[in-house]
Each structure stands twice: as structure tokens, then as C-alpha cells.
Amino acid sequence: MNTEHVGARQEASENLPLVVAVDLGGTQIRTAVAHGAKLLSRVSLLTGDNPTPERIMPRLFQAVRQALDQAGTSLDQIAGIGISAPGPLNNRTGIVYVPPNLPGWKNVPVQDIFSEQFHVPIFVENDANAAGLGEYMFGAGRGSRDMVYLTISTGIGGGVITDGRIVEGVSGTAAELGHMTVDWHGERCNCGNIGCLERIASGTAIARRANETIARGEGKDLLAFALAHQGHEAEAKEEQRATHTPDVPIRVTARTVAQAAEAGILLAQDIIATAAEAIGVGLVNIIHIFNPEMIILGGGLTHMGALLLEPALRIVQDRTMQVPREAVRIVLAQLGPNVGLVGAGALICYNKEQQKIEHVIRKSEQSGEHGSE
Ligand SMILES: [Zn+2]
């Protein structure tokens, strides 16, 4: 990194406001006081088995106050609270509809509930968009204007930024990149569609395919490898919860499949290759539809590295139209596990900037009307 770059970043970060970030996850809720990509404090709580809003909200408010205390600051020094929540949600009203991983939640007016407690600007955005925004403003996407963030983890999600704006769609559900069809004769996905990218290439999908094959009595090598390399029981339980498939005994996680593939076990290599191909096809679609200057790949599965990414990138090279292919850079995310919090905090700067832009557009439209009179 050259010194000029560092200087420019430091200058920019001096102008950044202090914000509170909240990352509402299915198993954990995290709060922080953030300054750009820097977290000055962090307080987490487990959602527990019965995370109804009535039970969670008071604990969450307490966590926010604790985070402020730990950072040695107070609410009056905070520019706003950004909340990253599981979709579907309406980012204009701040209502979270029915997130599948937060049982007991239905049409919860998160923004209004926070506004009663904290008298600062409050913004709510779905987790994938917020993460994309975090990478865009403070991570690998800095300096770009047209960017796609694709996170490959237990699920697959995305955030699309076009000309500096998050693509929301008319109901705020745009950029469900994990639910693009990559195999129209494929299996039914939880979302209702058939052959979704997520259904084939997510960590959950990789683990499911491995375990279903083993349950059919095939894949003895993989099972033997998994039994010899156990120690991910907690992780396996988590995956089982996420997939709602208690009927399939989960023995093998996506990570174990990756390790088995590295060790030369054919079934594991085949499963990872299928996932990698689907990701490659997904990337081709993304490039053809959005013509982005950058695609940022995040999420736990990217830690598989070349095993997953090389076949995917080969498909991109082989199948993408030349002009958008030569324009795009495909890079790894930079914010790691903090992406949710940094993205939630980024909502404050982003929304203030958008409001300013809208204000200027409205003014110029008004003066345009006067001019034509
Ligand atoms: Zn789907």
C-alpha cells in the first residue's frame, strides 16, 4: 500500500461520524460503536430459543447502551443507529416482515421501536444489502460505483450497488442473488423456485448432498474421512438448525467436504465441483445483467479458496461476453466477520448522502419548472 493512499484514507476517516451499528442475526445479535470500518466497542448477545421481539428488544437496548459506555461515548455524540436485519423487510418503513431465522417475528416495526428509545436517526436495511454497502464504503469496494457483493455461506445472498445506490426494487427485495435459477430442472428451493444457486452451492447445499449420498449407502470414503476428522459437532448442529432437515442425520459439514476434497476423495471433489460450477454460472449471469466494475465475494465458503473459486472463474472466462468480462474485477471481501456491523454503521452515511442527493434533485426539478414557465 502506498503512503498517498493511506493519507487519503486517514483524511476521509476524520470526517466520518461515530455511529451505532446493530447486526440482528438468527443466533446472535451484535452491537457496536463504529467509526468507518473501525469498531470502538462490541457487545453481543445470544438470541436464545425463543427470540420474540418482546424478549429481545429490552436486552438489545441494554447492549446498545453498554456498547456506548465501552466506547466512552454517549448518544448525543452519535450520528445515528444503523440496523442490519434478516429480510424480507421494508427499508423505508423499517418493518421486518417474517424472517425465517427469527421465529416469533411478524411485521415488527424495528425502526419505530428503536425511535422510542433513542432519539437519533435510525435506518434499517436487509443484511445482505448492508454487508454489500459495508464492503462498498469501507472494504474491497472503496472507490467503485458499480459493484456486486455476493456472500456464499450457509445461504447465498447479495447486494447490488449501481451508480452509488443500493438496488432495492419496488418492494425492497431486489438482489436476491442466491435465488437466481441456475438449473431450471433442478430441486425445489425453500423460496419456492426451482434450481436456485443457493440450493446447489451454499454450505447447506454442499452438506446436504454429502449427507444424502451417505444416507443412500454411497460415499463410504467420505463418511470414513468425516468420522476420522470429527470435531465440528457444534457446527453440524448449527447447520442442521439452519436447514430444518432433522430427518437427515448430519454428520458431514461443508468444511469437512472441502477437506475431504483436498484429501482426494472423489465424491467430495464432485460435490464441490458442482457447487463451483453453479457459482461460475451465477457470476456469468451477474456480469451479463449488471456489467459491474467489481464483484466482491464474501462468506465462509470463500475460505475454500482455489478449490471453489478456480473452476468458477474458469467458467466466467469461458462464457462471459468480452466487454463486460474485461471490465469486471472479481475480488475477495475485506471486512471478514465484522462485515455485518460495519455495513449497519455504513447505513448512516449512505442514507444521509442519498437524502442530500434527493434534496438537490428536487430543488433542480423545481427550478426547472420555473424556467419553463
Ligand atoms: Zn431459492
Describe what this molecule looks like in 3D.
The chain is of the alpha/beta class and 373 residues long. The chain has 2 domains: 14-139 and 336-361, ATPase, nucleotide binding domain (Nucleotidyltransferase, domain 5), CATH 3.30.420.40; 147-332, ATPase, nucleotide binding domain (Nucleotidyltransferase, domain 5, 2-Layer Sandwich), CATH 3.30.420. 47% of the residues lie in helices and 17% in strands. It contains 13 helices and 13 strands. The protein has helices at residues 3-14, 53-70, 110-117, 127-138, 197-201, 203-215, 220-228, 233-243, 254-262, 266-290, 306-319, 322-327, 339-372, and strands at 19-24, 28-35, 38-46, 81-85, 89-90, 95-96, 108-109, 122-126, 147-152, 156-162, 165-166, 294-298, 329-332. Strands 3-2-1-4-8 form a 5-stranded mixed beta sheet, with helices on both faces. The chain has a 5-stranded mixed beta sheet with strand order 11-10-9-12-13, with helices on both faces. The chain is globular and about 60 Å long. The chain starts with a helix and ends with a helix. 44% of the residues are buried. Residues 1-11 and 244-248 have low confidence and may be disordered. The site of zinc ion has 7 residues, from helix 5. Zinc ion (ZN) binds next to helix 5.
